[in-house]
């Protein structure tokens, strides 16, 4: 009997506590992926795993991997396969809508909503009238995106929650979309909750058993002094607190937490993501670019033509505001600036350090990238904030993943041929063309 000890029980309790803490961390990370209006871009990138070439017929592999890159370059900041991000989860979309509809939608969703297409209007309203940007993608490119979506959605890990039970006749049901989106996350949570309940039941049972055993042993007469001492022993918390292993564990945990936080802090130096200064005039992009659908380039006139996108001068405002709301105190501020012949003192939101070279025309006009890809849902912003991280890693990642638009450009014909011969099937990305060379972005 002398081998019966209660002390391991308290050790076990501590281990249990640590398990709970770890479980809590995982749950917290789950929640942290959702932030204001959008979603942390890093999280969405993670949510769209690598190409599904393996699980598809060989003929489709190239289309799927091209679709993978296109999806990550254009769609991933708003869409994931199984999760609602800014827009709906795309799993099972090919059953909800036919391909020709999807192609039209991606190329110009606002036109479809305006035309009164029943499904388009419904989904638009469901997502708080957030407009999905238009994409200058070819039919073929869009087809490859949905081939990729389909391949991702049918991967075994997702199949359990992705759902073969989805209406085969393609009923456009909002619930279906939501269910598929939240499915994967919920599944993990359910497993965690079940585990926690099991652990609690185990603890309670063990305490009861320990008590019963102690009572039984107390009733026995044939125990010697040491055994009695062992049975009556109380858990000595002071001894535990003073013990070397306890101090060691707490010390190590403390050092690890401090180290982790410092590294996170250091990484964030110079990061301005989410920066949203207040502006001298309550100018709203939501009102102008969103509700009144004024084209971005009406105000940012040089964005398709030159390196920098200009901020409009007060004269551009006056094209409309010489008439509209002329008596509003906010509009009077524009008049005052013009009378004094001084520019409006807008506070700059986006600002790369001088060591980096970024050219708008190269991305918007030549590359055909939508403003929203980098600046987020500007047309929904009352006050502009910095949506992307604007770090070097952010630039480079996109250059690695985005295929270069080489169609109809004779300059690229030979290059692409050489590239394709050397890299069977891998898309000709911006980086294949040298877009990750230091001197391209650094003076
Ligand atoms: C800036 C955010 C954003 C980007 C980028 C974006 N979408 Fe969307 N998408 C949305 C929103 C929001 C909706 C919901 C409808 C609406 O509000 O217009 C949507 C809806 C959809 C739908 C209909 C989904 C359904 O369940 O019926 C499809 C399909 C779709 N998007 C495909 C794409 C593809 C493909 C891309 C990339 C080429 C893309 N989207 C890029 C925001 C975005
Ligand atoms: C009616 C004129 C007007 C239209 C249309 C407009 N903008 Fe602006 N934009 C402004 C003004 C004025 C500012 C400076 C004040 C501010 O930051 O809100 C600005 C600022 C911005 C900034 C932040 C610049 C900085 O300081 O870093 C971005 C990004 C931007 N606009 C993008 C867009 C996009 C994308 C669209 C189209 C969806 C758009 N704008 C449409 C007038 C306009
Ligand atoms: C193409 C026309 C157009 C241009 C250009 C334009 N606006 Fe507007 N603006 C509007 C319209 C339309 C409204 C909404 C008026 C209403 O709500 O009745 C508006 C409303 C506003 C309001 C809200 C006024 C209030 O008191 O409700 C402000 C502030 C404003 N604009 C500032 C600006 C500034 C600053 C510029 C220049 C960078 C600008 N606008 C350029 C059309 C324009
Ligand atoms: C590939 C990413 C990308 C795209 C696409 C993009 N921008 Fe930008 N934008 C940036 C970066 C990066 C900056 C900061 C530039 C700097 O500080 O030199 C910026 C800055 C701006 C500014 C502040 C003025 C300036 O030039 O620094 C405005 C306004 C702006 N963008 C508007 C737009 C509009 C409108 C569009 C779409 C027609 C657009 N951007 C498309 C990345 C992008
Ligand atoms: C959303 C994707 C995306 C992001 C983000 C992006 N780029 Fe690009 N970039 C492109 C594409 C696409 C091209 C190719 C345009 C073309 O020539 O067709 C390009 C081309 C370039 C080029 C010319 C490369 C060459 O080979 O001539 C430079 C320089 C560049 N980008 C700088 C930057 C910098 C700096 C940033 C970050 C501040 C950035 N880019 C962020 C997509 C992106
Ligand atoms: C696609 C564009 C691009 C390419 C290619 C690129 N950089 Fe950068 N780099 C940037 C941008 C943008 C920044 C500023 C990022 C910031 O402020 O966080 C930057 C910042 C830096 C910095 C300063 C870091 C800091 O914290 O201030 C160094 C050093 C640097 N880059 C070195 C390099 C080297 C070496 C290469 C080649 C291997 C390279 N870069 C290639 C875009 C690029």
UniProtKB/TrEMBL annotation:
Positions of transmembrane segments: 190-213
Domain Cytochrome c residues, every copy: 62-153
Signal peptide bounds: 1-28
MF terms (GO), sorted A to Z: electron transfer activity; heme binding; metal ion binding
Keyword Membrane part of the UniProt annotation: yes
The keyword Transmembrane belongs to this UniProt entry's keyword annotation: yes
Annotated CDD domains: Cytochrom_C3 (cd08168)
Keywords tagged on the record: Heme, Iron, Membrane, Metal-binding, Signal, Transmembrane, Transmembrane helix
The organism's taxonomic lineage, starting at the top: Bacteria, Pseudomonadati, Bacteroidota, Cytophagia, Cytophagales
Name this protein carries in UniProt: Cytochrome C
Pfam assignment, any one: Cytochrome_C7
Organism per entry: Hymenobacter oligotrophus
């Amino acid at each position: 009997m002398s081998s019966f000890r209660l002390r391991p029980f308290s050790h076990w309790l501590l281990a249990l506590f640590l398990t709970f803490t770890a479980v809590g961390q995982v749950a917290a990370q789950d929640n942290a992926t959702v932030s204001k209006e959008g979603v942390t871009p890093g999280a969405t990138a993670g949510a769209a795993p690598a190409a599904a070439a393996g699980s598809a017929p060989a003929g489709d592999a190239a289309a799927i991997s091209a679709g993978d890159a296109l999806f990550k370059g254009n769609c991933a900041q708003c869409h994931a396969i199984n999760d609602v991000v800014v827009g709906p989860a795309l799993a099972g979309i090919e059953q909800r809508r036919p391909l020709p509809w999807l192609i039209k939608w991606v190329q110009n969703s606002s036109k479809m909503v305006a035309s009164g297409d029943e499904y388009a209007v419904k989904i638009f309203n469901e997502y708080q009238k957030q407009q999905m940007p238009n994409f200058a993608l070819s039919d073929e490119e869009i087809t490859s995106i949905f081939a990729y979506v389909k391949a991702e959605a049918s991967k075994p890990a997702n199949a359990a929650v992705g759902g073969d039970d989805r209406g085969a006749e393609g009923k456009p049901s909002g619930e279906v979309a939501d269910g598929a989106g939240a499915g994967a996350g919920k599944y993990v949570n359910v497993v965690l909750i079940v585990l926690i309940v099991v652990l609690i039941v185990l603890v309670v049972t063990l305490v009861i058993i320990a008590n019963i055993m102690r009572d039984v042993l107390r009733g026995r007469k044939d125990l010697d002094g040491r055994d009695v001492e062992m049975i009556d022993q109380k858990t000595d918390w002071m001894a535990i607190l003073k013990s070397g292993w306890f101090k060691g564990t707490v010390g190590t945990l403390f050092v690890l937490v401090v180290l982790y936080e410092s590294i996170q802090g250091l990484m964030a130096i110079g990061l301005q993501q989410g920066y949203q200064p207040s502006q001298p005039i309550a100018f709203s992009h939501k009102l102008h670019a969103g509700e009144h659908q004024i084209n971005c380039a009406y105000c940012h006139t040089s964005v398709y033509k030159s390196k920098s996108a200009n901020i409009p001068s007060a004269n551009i405002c006056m094209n409309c505001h010489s008439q509209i709301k002329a008596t509003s105190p906010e509009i009077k501020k524009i008049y005052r600036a013009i009378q004094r012949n001084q520019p409006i003192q807008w506070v700059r939101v986006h600002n790369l350090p001088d060591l980096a070279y970024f050219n708008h025309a190269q991305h918007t006009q030549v590359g055909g990238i939508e403003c929203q890809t980098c600046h987020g849902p500007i047309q929904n912003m009352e006050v502009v904030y910095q949506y992307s991280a604007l770090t070097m890693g952010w630039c480079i990642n996109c250059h690695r993943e985005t295929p270069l638009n080489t169609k109809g450009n004779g300059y690229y014909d030979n290059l692409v041929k050489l590239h394709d011969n050397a890299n069977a099937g891998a898309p000709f990305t911006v980086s294949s063309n040298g877009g990750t060379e230091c001197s391209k972005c650094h003076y």
